[in-house]
From TrEMBL:
Transmembrane segments: 6-25, 32-52, 58-76
Keywords: Membrane, Transmembrane, Transmembrane helix
Protein name from the UniProt record: Uncharacterized protein
Keyword Transmembrane helix: yes
Length: 90
């Protein structure tokens, strides 16, 4: 049997973050985007690293890492649109 007690704090944090996102708490979105982008980049860099040292089948992980970068691109696009609309006075 494995001891999962080290995962209680991250699980609690992610549960609170999920509830904050459901309640549309503004500071929760950048936190969510930061963590998903971080995990996505770790997966992509790890896939490249393991493909160099071990097997190229690890490159299958790159689309999974790229999918975790989608919230970052959506947030950047939304911020640019809101800045443009504020500059135009709309």
């Amino acid at each position: 049997m494995r001891d999962l007690t080290p995962l209680t704090l991250p699980a609690l944090f992610l549960a609170v973050l999920g509830i904050a996102l459901l309640l549309r708490w503004k500071p929760a979105l950048p936190l969510f985007v930061f963590f998903t982008a971080f995990v996505g980049m770790v997966i992509i860099v790890g896939a490249f690293w393991h493909s160099i040292t071990q097997t190229p089948w690890v490159l299958i992980n790159i689309p999974f890492g790229a999918a975790l970068l989608v919230p970052l691109t959506l947030m950047v696009r939304h911020k640019r649109r809101s800045r443009i609309s504020l500059a135009n006075g709309h």
